[in-house]
Amino acid sequence: MDKKRTINSSVYSPHVKKAIDFTFQYLNEELSLKRITEYLNINKSYFCKLFKHHMGITYTKFVNELRIEESKKLLLETDLSILDIALSLGYNNPNYFIKAFKEQLRTTPLKYRKEMEG
C-alpha cells in the first residue's frame, strides 16, 4: 500500500512503528485493540493515547482507512463480491464494511465499483 512507504519510523515511537508494521502484515485478519496491545505488551489506554498522538487518528480508524483503500483496488481489479471483499479484508460483518466504506467515501462499495467502471 502506498501509505506504508510514507511512514518514517524515526518519527514515531517504537510501539507505534511496531503497531503499523503489524497492521500491514495482518490487515486481512482480525485487528482488535486487544490483539494489538497484547502483541505490543502494553496497556490498551496507553496505546490508544500514544497512537492518536503520533498518527492523529485512532487505531481503529487507521485500520479502516487502510482496509478501505485496499477494498477500492479489489473492487476495480477483481470480480469478487462485496461479501468476499469484506471477508478477505478482515471484516467479519459485511454491513460494517459497507458502513465504513460509505463513511470514508460517501458512497457504497457497489456504487463505487459501478461509477469507476462506467
UniProtKB/TrEMBL annotation:
Ranges where the HTH araC/xylS-type domain occurs: 17-115
Pfam families assigned: HTH_18
Keywords: DNA-binding, Transcription, Transcription regulation
Gene3D superfamilies in the cross-refs: Homeodomain-like
Record-linked PROSITE patterns: HTH_ARAC_FAMILY_1, HTH_ARAC_FAMILY_2
Domain of life of the organism encoding this protein: Bacteria
InterPro entries from the UniProt entry: Homeodomain-like_sf (IPR009057), HTH_AraC (IPR018060), HTH_AraC-typ_CS (IPR018062), Tscrpt_reg_AraC-type_HTH (IPR020449)
Gene Ontology MF terms in the entry: DNA-binding transcription factor activity; sequence-specific DNA binding
UniProt protein name: Transcriptional regulator containing an amidase domain and an AraC-type DNA-binding HTH domain
